[in-house]
Design a protein that fits this description.
The complex is a heterodimer of chains A (about 350) and B (about 270).
Chain A (H helix, E strand, L loop, with lengths): L4 E5 L2 E6 L5 H10 L10 E7 L1 H10 L3 E8 H9 L3 E8 L5 H5 L6 H11 L8 E10 L2 E11 L4 E5 L6 H9 L6 E6 L2 E2 L3 H5 L4 E4 L12 H6 L9 H14 L15 H15 L3 E5 L7 H17 L3 E6 L2 H4 L5 E6 L2 E2 L1
Parallel strand pairs in A: 3-4, 4-5, 8-13, 8-14, 11-12, 12-13
Antiparallel strand pairs in A: 1-2, 1-3, 6-7, 6-9, 9-10, 14-15
Helix pairs in contact in A: 1-2, 2-3, 2-5, 9-10, 10-11
Chain B lengths: L7 H26 L3 H21 L3 H23 L3 H22 L4 H5 L11 H20 L1 H9 L1 H6 L4 H23 L4 H5 L1 H9 L3 H26 L3 H23 L1
Helix pairs in contact in B: 1-6, 1-9, 1-11, 1-12, 2-3, 2-4, 2-9, 3-4, 3-9, 6-9, 11-12, 11-13, 12-13
The chains are: A alpha/beta (about 350), B mainly alpha (about 270).
Amino acid sequence: MEKSLIVTQNNLEIFTSHSKWLYPLFELEDFLFTGKYSPENLSLTDKIAGKAAAFLIVRLGFKKVHIHLISEGAVSIFNRFQIDFTFDELVPKIQCKTEEIVIGNEPVDEVWQMLRRRAGRVAGLSVEIKDLVVEIDHKLIIDKLNLRVGKGEHVFIKGANGVGKTTLLKAILGLEKFSSGSIQVGDFLVGSKEWDKNRSVTGYVHQEMVKNNFPISAAEVVEIGLSGQQLNQTEIFHRIEIAMRRTGCFHLEKRSYHELSGGEKQRVNIARCLCQQAKVLLFDEPTSFLDNGAKDEMHELLTELWINEAPTAIIVSHDEHWMSKFKCQIHELRDGIIC
Amino acid sequence: MLELFSYGPVLRGFLVLLISGFTFPITGVYLLRMNLLPLRFMLMHGALLGGAIAMAFQFNPFWTTMLINLLLVWFMVKTARGLKADMGYISIFIMVAAVGLAFALISIFNVQAKDTMSLLWGSIFTIGTLQTVGFIVIALLIVGFHFLKYRQLKAVFFDPSVAFSSGVNERAIYTIVVLITALTVAVAMKLIGALLIDVVIILPAIISTLHAKSFKSVVIWSSLWGGFFAFAGFFVAYWLKIPTSSAIALIATVVFLVIYFRKKQKS
């Protein structure tokens, strides 16, 4: 079988792939994740490269590239990022859908995220809400609401206090019973027996304010993410450490949760969701009680999380200024429906 | 002094006190964290009702009290969930109803009120062999449940919504916690009496929350303090010739005050 991608170090093959489309590059990404090799010192030979492949090669950090069949769009991207490249044949464009979708002047991370979603390499699950009706004490809170959030997408929902933003999140979590309609998280219908066994696919980050100050350490909060899973102690410690390191709060592990700042608490809560390996993250007013510095930190952390983990996220907030920092869809919840 | 232990009831009482001292404060941690403090008032009055029923119908007061308290807790949980009402309010209603029923039974069956009231005092030296088994079973139940459901408990105590989303059956955990607490309160009354029950169950937990920083350390310290109070209380009671429950209460109070003021000084 013909190799579609070859990576060499000093003329010695260290990685090859026979896969098609962009998959060889994603496989290479996994291969390089170990950190054993530095892409700057490696040579990459790819069979075909359009704009999408060019973006991925740039993001991987390769400086020396040879392409058998290259598109003009890919050439311009390589030139833009000063990649030392050669090719055998130049064509105006590659016959592929992604060649049409990628423009060529977008930020690299944005294209990478989009391609990962198209390749199905995102951790997130889709959320589909159809004709949802929620009544609390005979009062209509949500009225035939429809919303679709794709795998790995991030959606903000704004709205005044009391319009039902938290109720919507609780309905997705399965905590709030709904009168009619349906909520589908990935393959699971919320409320079904299957979902009941798998409801840890949804992680919940509430407002910073926890209603009690009962002693609990930061690591213990993260460990809560594993409450529904049967794991041995070594695996538990391992998962806690990885999750806390990923959100930059491992140094807080022994500190009392209640003594942490608002921003630190949210880091710990996001680590809890990562530890849980949640595929859909629900944030309920995550910036309430946070100062501006902590809000910026939260923005940075979520952006990083969305690039690397790509979970699906639904964030309800009334902090429009903070929301506007993200390049995401912003919906408004008004009169029980999404406007 | 050690010759005391040659008497069966004394040795039995001491061992039961020690076992309870180490294990019952774990339920105190639950009571504190889940804000179930009104529950123990209901259970104390439930014990009074249990005592009245036992006296009226010639049943064993120890087991009757336990059964009545379990039934009351079951009724409370069911009613609170059905009405979506606060358990605290429901427990107050049940408490009043239990006392009313207890006094009605005392009156109708001409029960000596002082017999029923004796439940309010308790005694470690009147614990029978079967009751000792009961204590041991409940202590094992507390410890077993705590270790088996440790992470789930921690999740529910942190935030029930978060616990639910982590895959924990938070309603089941809550119900079991309330039932175990009911059993603990019921048997602890036999040991130390209704009026001083907080000394064995609540005070070690309160003291631990003053100095512990994690859930794990709160539980460990509660257990250690409880065990220490029971052990020291037994010997101090003998030495000062006062009831064991009083000795335990006094020692716990001193420790509480010392830790409280030390914490205040530090802050």
